Amino acid sequence: MSAEISKDFIFNYLAGKSSALQKQMIDEWVKSPANEELFYKWLVEYEYQQPQYLIELPEALSRFHAFADNHDQNPDLILTPATRKVLPSYKLGGWMMAASVVLGLLIGSWVFLDKILYKTYRTAFGETQALVLDDSTVVTLNANSSLQVPRFGFGTQTREVLLKGEADFAVSHTATNQKFIVKADKEFEVVVWGTEFTVYTRQQRAKVVLNKGKVELRYREGKDQKQVMLKPGDLVTLDQRNQLKHEVISNPETYTAWKDERYVFDDTSLQEFARIFEENYGIRLVIQDDSLAKRTLEGSFRADNAEELLAIVAEIFSLKIVRKDNTIVLTENL
Questions:
Q1: Fold annotation for 118-253
Q2: Predicted model pTM
Q3: Between vectors from CA 125 to CA 313 and to CA 324, what angle results, nearest 5°?
Q4: 118-253 against 261-332: fold identical
Q5: How far is CA 27 from CA 7, 35, 269, in A?
Q6: What backbone torsions phi and psi does residue 68 show, to the nearest 5 degrees?
Q7: Among 62-76, 246-260, 314-328, which is the least confidently predicted range?
């Protein structure tokens, strides 16, 4: 059955020219991950051949959701001519048609559009993942992080990626000297020219550490757009208000120790350790004693999982560990 699915076959489907049997064939075919990737590729190609659809999509979405909301009260409701202008050949046949693959992808939500245009790599709590992108750039994602990479034209038309969490980048050089850009959701981006660096972007703060080469950090502070050039050994930290702190460090490699399942602490308070622990493992640490929370941790420790790391810290400070669901309370073991 899958051998009969071609680009023209999919284009006819998107144009509303397929029979019920053909639609069923496509619904089964697209369940395969490999076929899903091919479907996305053809879908984007089809969209670019329909410029009026791309321009009017937001308005069409609004009209279609209004249609869906009213359908239960008026089952005989049909699409208006204005809606048919954008979706001229979808024969809905009632609300059940909304379960079809194309309708779900094209007009269900912008989330699906992101899925079409970008491939997302994610790591779970306690997991790291090494990636080699199409332009030969090597990326290592830290725990509880995600990276969005364009599915189409990456390495030729664009080299922009979107990071949430933390990642280490070894960016490859291209013959056209095309810039590599890491965008974050905290109103800053890192513009790169063949280099090695680490980007951290979490709720409380963000930071960039440069190991080799040269990067430009572009960020917004209030209404002002600013930029700063980084040299090897530079550490830049942005707080919640995007105010910048610029330092020079002698050991930038310690900021990527997590790639080797090592944790390096330099005068790190237990309160800060608790925040790092939750970000990486999804487990909340509660330190009820303020004086205990301010005690600091020094050293480099290797731990394969959350239990090992917590056991090391508990032994250093003689802590008692009390577990309550997904929360751990730390107290001094008197």
A1: Jelly Rolls (2.60.120)
A2: 0.68
A3: 60
A4: no
A5: 15, 11, 54
A6: -65, -40
A7: 62-76
At 176, phi and psi to the nearest 5? -95, 5
Coil vs helix vs strand at 274: helix
Is residue 234 within 8 Å of residue 248, measured between CB atoms? Answer: yes
**Tokens of residue 257, six digits:** 């120790």
Q: Which amino acid, 49?
A: Q
Domain ranges of the chain: 2-117, 118-253, 261-332
Residue position matching structure tokens 């073991």: 333
With contact defined as beta carbons under 8 Å apart, do 309 and 301 qualify? yes
HSE of 297, CA atoms in CB hemisphere, 13 A: 24
282-291 residue pLDDT tens: 999 999 889 9
Structure tokens at 24: 């069923």
End-to-end CA distance of the chain: 70
Range 261-332 has CATH code 3.30.1330.10: no
Where does residue 205 rank: exposed (0-12), middle (13-18), buried (19+ CB within 10 A)? middle
CB 209 within 8 A of CB 220: no
The DSSP bridge partners found for residue 220 are 225
pLDDT tens-digit profile of 172-208?
A: 888 888 899 999 876 789 999 778 999 999 877 899 9
R_g of the chain computed on alpha carbons? 25
Handedness of CA 201, 160, 219, 244 (dihedral sign): positive
Cross-strand bridge partners of residue 286: 329
The Cα 5–Cα 32 span in angstroms is: 13
Q: Scanning the structure block, which residue is given the tokens 């301010």? A: 294
Gap between the Cα atoms of 291 and 110, Å rounded: 48
Query: Is-contact 200 207, C-beta < 8 A?
Result: yes
- The tokens describing 234, both together, are 């530079």
Structure tokens at 165: 């969490």
